[in-house]
Amino acid sequence: MVLQEDVQRKFEMTQKLMEIYEWLLNMYLLDFYVDQQWDTLPESWCESLQAMDPEDMGTLLSGAPTKHMLPLSFLSLVKCAHTLSISRERNINCKPKNLEEFPQSEIGNNPKLKNLFLKHVKLKKRHEINLMAEIVNETAKISNCGAVLDFGSGLGHLMRVLSYKYDLHTMGIECQSQLTEQARTFDLELEYTARKHLSEELMSKLKRPTHLNLTLTSPEQLLQLPLTANITEYGLVGLHPCGDLGPLLLKHFVNCERVKFICIVGCCYMKLSCDSEPYGYPMSEYVKKLGSKLSYNSREIACHAIETYSERLLKGQYDYLKIHAFRAALEKVLVEHDPALKHSPVRSIKHSNTMTFESYCSAALSRLDVTLSDSAVCAGEAYLSQWRLVVLLYSLRLLLAPLAETLVLLDRMLYVLEHGLHCEIRPVFDPKISPRNHIIIGRRM
């Protein structure tokens, strides 16, 4: 049982740490040379970190001990960041222990149809859908609820697993009509294949998903959905609902008795409304009273994949990160050429080992009416010798990324708990496959 006081205490400690290092989170890396960002770090940090290779920073990000002598203030930050962040390590015991109590349908039990749900689904999505479906099925059965509404249902891959494999009534809510039409086609394809192995009697018992086109903008719309006769009480499901959609679903869950449970995975925190209605952050009364704020930069960095990044650093696969130094050097050159060009929308260019700064500038500025002198390009190229410092500074910001996500997740958890409902957060997905790997599970007790 999660105690609300414990969640509040963890939130307060995390917020205090974030406030101390807000200056680091709010840096724009492209201003590295313009604002001389490296010199803004504590002097003791600069001296120690300059002696480190990116591989050593990868070690720190992964939580492993390092061979370097580092300042106590820096080591304290690393330790606190790892301790206070909600664990992102996949919980291998996330599957329900009593799966026999949650039987699958005839399609789910038929060995000839075990790969039926893999068609048209990419590997990353397969990983997410299989695990998400198990959690949703478990929660639905515990909640004595046989229907699910999937928001942002896309091509309907999750819905097909829930309907045809786990025998749940499902309705998908999707704003793009072309995705809905394709989802219906995929439903019929699946049934066509299943019919080759199942009797007509069994086929007649299958629950086909219902697809609905709708763009949600307010909680009131959720109360007016054209539900089918089989869907009176239901659970809410969202596999990476973007921006304010996640908070919108949570609000509907706590305010509508017909909603028996919710299973959502966060996404695109930078798109949350934070300064005006509908307030995607903060949601809970407790966090509102604390006056907690998360800047756009903090919410944006929270969406980055720290595990994949640190693994690449550890393996020495970081040459591609030189592009950050190229962009920062170009920013310095542009601002010196004309201050009005600051943060101009240049083209995004991938790094290659044969790329020169001159060729990078030519490609990046192809959409702007800007001509740089040869001397300006040469001056910018001189900055590239510091590219490792750019990588190290980005790594420092990424160290704090899980803390920013922790604040968002704890706020959502507190919001549900404040309404007297059960809530838990499970790290279900492999974070190297799906960086937003926590499922928020709420249900009426």
UniProtKB/TrEMBL annotation:
It holds the Pfam family Methyltransf_32. Residues 124-273 form the Methyltransferase domain. It comes from the Eukaryota. InterPro entries: Methyltranfer_dom (IPR025714), METTL25 (IPR052220), SAM-dependent_MTases_sf (IPR029063). PANTHER family: CGI-41 METHYLTRANSFERASE, METHYLTRANSFERASE-LIKE PROTEIN 25B. This is Protein RRNAD1 isoform X1. It comes from Papilio xuthus (Asian swallowtail butterfly). The lineage of its organism: Eukaryota, Metazoa, Ecdysozoa, Arthropoda, Hexapoda.
